[in-house]
Amino acid sequence: MSSPTHQSVSNTPGSPEPGARGATVPVWLIVLMVLLLYWGGIYFDENGGWFNKQVYAPYKSIAEVEAYQPVRGGIDLSHGKALFESNCALCHGVDGMGKPGQAPPLAGSEWAQGNPAHMIRIPLYGLTGTITVKGNTYTGLTMAAMGATYSPSDLAAVLSYIRSSWGNKASPITAAQVEAVKKEVGNRTVPWTPEELNALK
Amino acid sequence: MNANRSTSPLADGNSSISISETDVSCRVPLFVLFVSAAIWLFLASVFGLMASVKFHDPNFLSNTAFLTYGRVHPVATNALLYGFGIQAGLGVALWILARLGNTRVAQPLVIAIGGSLWNLGVLVGIFEIFLGNSTGFEALEMPGYAAVFLFLGYLLIGICAATTLHSRRERRLESPQWFFLAALFWFAWIYSTAMLLLGGTPVRGITQAIVAWWFSANLQNVWLVFVGLAASFYFIPLLMNRKLHSQYLALLTFWTLILFASWSGIPNSAPVPAWIPAVSTVATVLTIITVLAVIVNVYKTVGYGCSQTSNPPSGKFFAFGIAAFVVAWLMNIAAAIPDINSVLHFTWFTTAQWHLNVYGFFSLTMLGAIYYIVPLVTGMEWPFVKWVRAHYWLAAIGTIVLVLPMAIGGVIQGTKLSNPQVSFIETAKGMLPFLKASSVGELFILLGHLLLLINIIALSVRYHKKHFVPVYEAATAELKPSEAKS
Amino acid sequence: MNYGPLIFLAAFLGLSASWFGFVLTPQVQIGREQQATNTVNTAEMYPQALPGLANQGLEVYRENGCVYCHSQQVRQNGTAVNVLLSDAGTNATAVVEALLKANVGVTNADEVNVSGAPKILLRDTTVERAKAAVTALNGAGAKASVELQPLGPDIARGWGTRRTVAADYLYEHTVFPGSQRVGPDLANVALRLPDGNWQLRHLYSPAAEVSGSPMPAYKFLFEERKLEPGQRASGDAILLNASGEFFDPAKNNGPAVSEIIPKPEAKALVAYLLSRRAETPLFVAPMTPPPAANNSSATNTPAATAATGSTNAPAK
């Protein structure tokens, strides 16, 4: 094939392919790379949160994120919900509607929204006998002392969740109230009956 | 003509082929790739200018859905990246691989078919963006069905390029060959990953954005840089008639690109766990080693007695390309440092950096290569030789006028954005003078691309006249007497 | 020297490292997150999936490339820790003394003024000191709490109440974090501009609502119709007067001569915009919600709006 007619744009077509010489990499470049890698390690250690998926800038470590969590002075309803769904919902239902032959409803229940002192006693010590909830009478049911092993704050969370969910609108229950009831009742091994509870002031 | 290559250790006449045989084997595929690339480049700058003008007059061509800014802008970037960038890059890679390997390009027809598939993919993709079927991920807007054509076309070309490399007669591998080999394989990987994870079986939530950031960083900071630097490391020594200063520095460039640049691109503010942007920041800062290695290598190569250079106009394109590479990467590294990033991220500064990297560095390097290669593979000189120099000046001035106001305006914009006392609308209005200046740059660039387009079409016409018209006339000449008799 | 395969293998390993790091690892780590209860005392699940109309609006946002000018990420560069005194109790002297004893950087009784509660008693202190101060104050009969206030220019601009995190985007396909702020950030636009009708008018003519706005008009999302004198306008139409301005009965700039009827795309886009809120306090982005936000549902579901609620088709 004919070569280009004049060479103003391209170089001589027959020129040899360019190779490369073997000059060494300057030492300063290697030193700089090592220094930068060192800096990179420090930077990552300080800002990377060590691959924890819960650390977002501007927080630098999971410990810092935890320190910044709001103090739980009040009641933790999400925690209460989790506890309710893993323990209480088996009989009372996730929707709080109860189950025929197993448990009366909590949603809309006058007991669940009633006197906190009565409500706290039920999971702490259990309940037996005949109970009327929302106009229906439930006989022969017994609830064990499901909440006896809960810490006061856990029980307060669960009860507050019940009292504020599914249309219930009662005041939350605090850990202090739970502790007060525990102190007041002391060692009791038999479940309460509705009559006993109603007899309380 | 210098048929045998004295430098080749195997140059014994039998196993070596002449350089023009190499060039001729590239003729058909490179013609397909370069002419389509020139057309896409022109279209990219037309839509780029249109998008730019929309900032001075928001209601310019805004009453039809398909010409709204949010569609014209991705059309311009996709035409530049996929229509021109990757296509021209593949063409240049094929030619350099064949040249350095002292071999013919493998399966020219398959490459031409691959190129046609690629162009079909870009055409479908651009059309779909206009219709509103963009994927919504930046630098990856063309939807899945376009991606199938693109991917198949790329595979055909890529396999032929790898075969060309494999069947080389000159066994020694030079740095451009490493760069091309890694680039060829890497695009197939990143593109298939991104399309599968974003289109096919989409990942959830913000992980989509992480994949998209990873893809666009690997396309623009790794693929384009591999191909652009490979062309520079080939052409700069070639045009200077000497060897590259150091293959070890080239090797260092290669490895730092692989190990660091491939992790760049995730912004500091990204709504992802802190380790991801932290790793990305460290990796981006470490690419300073890449930049320094390139500076030293090119400076030492050019520095050995500049006098004897033949200095064809395409040489200027490579010089500008390397300068733009250095500036663009220093901008990229600076913008990755957290304190600077918090000011410059989300501003026009990053857009300026994008233009300088994709256009100033990569595209200008490819243009230089096209201006050099086309006369060799067609055996014909450019019809308007002087326009090559004119194109260089339009492109160089255009790039500076496009990028400089945008970068300066971006810094001002970022400073204002970090000050909540300055109202947002004031900040937005403050950018307008800078954007108007950038539009002038876009116009210069567009004119340059028009020169290239006319030049390459005129060359095709001349080629047609020289090679096909005589054949046609010879064929019809035999027919004419018989027609006359009847 | 033929190390082609070797180079290929090494490049393959080196490059695929970034694939493992930035594609595979985040997918394993946060790609399977689920909706969860948040840290606020509401037991609401977060995040909520986008309602259907907002999801259609997401597609309109994608089609028209809104992402090229609007980001949806709020940045945060720190968190201020304050001590909020909501009730000083009955014995102010005891409260001040308790605070002095708590060793929280307050050394002089004159520096503290507990009257005028509720107020911020200690500003921008450390977490440890704030917690110690709250314990001391509550012990002395006052009511105090730690207030966490995210900081940064984005938050100061009112673009959000905290930084955005991965959970905010969980149910979105496509996500639009964006890369450019030609226009303002939209991560919490529903909190800032909750009026659906304003959003529609702004889409129809941005410059009429925000003077000097460089945003293009999206008139192709609307249909214009002349109003005959005395003709009733469609329910959700925007009215224009003779000079093309928005008709406003309050300004008495009528009469309205034409009406602009939003197409379903416009309504969907507005529904999407009004779903843009990411203000729920989360474990990964702790903050004290502003008092008003305590009662309202802290989810990313949009409030029903006049613009999106009605579905009456344009009259013939």
Helix content class of chain C: 25-40%
- Distinct helical segment count of chain A: 7
Q: Summarize the biggest pleated sheet of chain C.
A: 3 strands, antiparallel
Oligomer: heterotrimer
The geometry of chain A reads as: elongated
Number of strands of chain C: 8
Radius of gyration of chain A: 35 Å
Look at the helices and sheets of chain C and give the structural class.
alpha+beta
Question: How are the strands of the largest sheet of chain C arranged?
Answer: 4-3-5
The global form of chain C is: flat
What is the distance, rounded to the nearest whole angstrom, between the alpha carbons of the first and last residues of chain C? Answer: 79 Å
In spatial order, strands of the major sheet of chain A run: 1-2
Number-wise, the strands of chain A total 2
Poorly predicted sequence stretches spanning 5 or more consecutive residues of chain A: 1-14
Order of helices and strands of chain A: HHHHEEHHH
Largest interface: B-C, 83 and 75 residues
What does this structure look like?
The complex is a heterotrimer of chains A (201), B (486) and C (316). In chain A, 41% of the residues lie in helices and 3% in strands. Chain A has 7 helices and 2 strands; from the N terminus they run H-H-H-H-E-E-H-H-H. Chain A is elongated. By secondary structure, chain B is mostly helical. Chain B is globular, with a radius of gyration of 23 Å. Chain C has helices spanning 4-30, 52-63, 92-101, 127-139, 153-156, 189-192, 196-204, 206-209, 264-273, 306-309; strands spanning 36-37, 45-46, 78-87, 119-125, 143-151, 222-226, 238-241, 256-262. In chain C, the strands form 3 sheets. In chain C, strands 4-3-5 form a 3-stranded antiparallel sheet. Chain C has a 3-stranded antiparallel sheet with strand order 6-8-7. In chain C, helix 3 packs antiparallel against helix 4. Chains B and C meet through helix 3, helix 6, helix 7, helix 8 and helix 9 of B and helix 1 and helix 2 of C.
Give a brief outline of the structure.
With 201 residues, chain A is mostly helical.
Fold topology:
The complex is a heterotrimer of chains A (201), B (486) and C (316).
Chain A: H1 27-47, H2 62-67, H3 77-92, H4 116-125, E1 131-133, E2 136-138, H5 152-164, H6 175-185, H7 194-199
Helix pairs in contact in A: 3-5, 4-6, 5-6
Chain B: H1 19-25, H2 27-53, H3 69-100, H4 108-131, H5 144-166, H6 175-200, H7 206-240, H8 247-259, H9 275-286, H10 288-303, H11 314-336, H12 338-344, H13 348-378, H14 385-417, H15 424-430, H16 432-485
Chain C: H1 4-30, E1 36-37, E2 45-46, H2 52-63, E3 78-87, H3 92-101, E4 119-125, H4 127-139, E5 143-151, H5 153-156, H6 189-192, H7 196-204, H8 206-209, E6 222-226, E7 238-241, E8 256-262, H9 264-273, H10 306-309
Antiparallel strand pairs in C: 1-2, 3-4, 3-5, 6-8, 7-8
